[in-house]
Design brief:
Blueprint: H1 5-19, H2 24-35, E1 40-43, H3 50-61, E2 65-69, H4 76-80, E3 81-86, E4 91-96, E5 103-107, H5 114-126, E6 128-131, E7 134-137, E8 143-148, H6 161-164, E9 169-171, H7 178-185, H8 190-194, H9 203-212, H10 220-233, E10 239-241, H11 245-261, H12 269-280, E11 285-286, H13 292-302
Parallel strand pairs: 1-8, 1-9, 2-5, 5-8
Antiparallel strand pairs: 3-4, 6-7, 10-11
């Protein structure tokens, strides 16, 4: 890489923040998810900028980008492709679907039926799809950004736990701050800025950054803290559903990636705290209808960094 890692990350974040105003934390989480080689779930009301963030990431990273609007009549073949018989050759030829891209946006994922949703499982977990007994590798890097509307909205199908667990992070953009909303009301449109957004990364640079994430060091003391957080999610009097081993690994990877974004080669407790809600909020389930995100914040406040519980 011709540019040093901190400068490269800073330049990438700066360009993304030009389009997604006032959401520095969420933008950092999205880039952190990409660097950690995970997949991102954006959950919010329509019109909050979820699609714009996905497009901006693809533009700044210089990656091939495809978007599919998920609807109730979407079929798995509409995503992964199908084998088509060709008269001239007398053979079946596989025609890849839109999932064969480096950044794939599954827009309003929870408006599709469970059958269509499940078509993404193999792609997200294995980086490949299987059609008619033949395995086809997906491009590398391969990053899924899925958006979903709140389940209270009409026409949505809840994502099963197995699907949710494939997403490294879940992030909500939320309403804009008053000053940012004033700019929007005055005519500033993030989507119009996308065309002029410069490319900072490319596939090779991105892979180089991704290879640095597992090298970010964690002390035994920090791993003890992480294990206490994980154990707390598995307390039967706290959660019906705690963090799985995959979720625990997601917490470690996300903390390493977040530390890298801060320009450090080692993880601090605040890195774990910065990503914990985004990692655990969609994976854990509280008793008495407690929201996972609310429960994750409670667990963070309850588990002490040095090993002494606070309640």
């Amino acid at each position: 890489m011709t540019m040093a890692v901190p400068q490269l990350i800073h330049a990438t974040l700066a360009q993304l923040n030009k389009v997604i105003l006032g959401k520095e934390q969420q933008v950092r989480l999205a880039l952190s998810c990409l660097l950690a080689n995970g997949h991102l779930l954006l959950e919010d009301l329509p019109g909050m900028g979820k699609t714009t963030l996905a497009h901006a990431l693809a533009q700044v990273c210089g990656l091939e980008y495809k978007r599919v609007q998920f609807t109730s009549d979407l079929l798995p073949a509409d995503l992964i492709g199908a084998s088509v018989f060709e008269m001239q050759s007398g053979n079946f030829r596989f025609h890849p679907g839109p999932v064969f891209s480096q950044i794939f946006l599954a827009d309003e994922l929870n408006r599709a039926t469970p059958k269509a949703q499940s078509a993404l499982l193999e792609a997200m977990e294995e980086g490949q799809v299987s059609v008619d007994g033949t395995t086809h590798r997906l491009p590398s890097p391969f990053f899924v950004i899925a958006t979903q509307n709140p389940q209270s909205q009409a026409g949505t199908f809840p994502l099963p736990e197995s699907q949710l667990d494939r997403f490294l992070l879940r992030v909500s953009l939320g309403y804009p701050a008053p000053a940012v909303e004033r700019e929007l009301l005055l005519g500033r449109n993030g989507r119009t800025l996308l065309a002029s957004l410069p490319q900072v990364l490319n596939g090779q640079r991105l892979k180089a950054l991704q290879s640095l994430v597992p090298q970010v060091k964690m002390t035994d003391t920090l791993l003890d803290y992480i294990q206490r957080l994980i154990a707390q999610t598995r307390q039967t009097d706290v959660c019906q559903l705690g963090l799985s081993p995959r979720g625990a690994q997601a917490l470690v990877k996300s903390a390493q990636s977040w530390a890298l974004l801060q320009g450090r080669g080692h993880v601090l407790p605040e890195d774990v705290q910065a990503v914990f809600v985004a990692v655990a909020g969609h994976r854990i389930m509280g008793r008495q209808e407690t929201q996972g995100e609310q429960l994750a914040r409670h667990i963070l406040s309850k588990v002490d960094v040095v090993g002494n519980g606070r309640g």
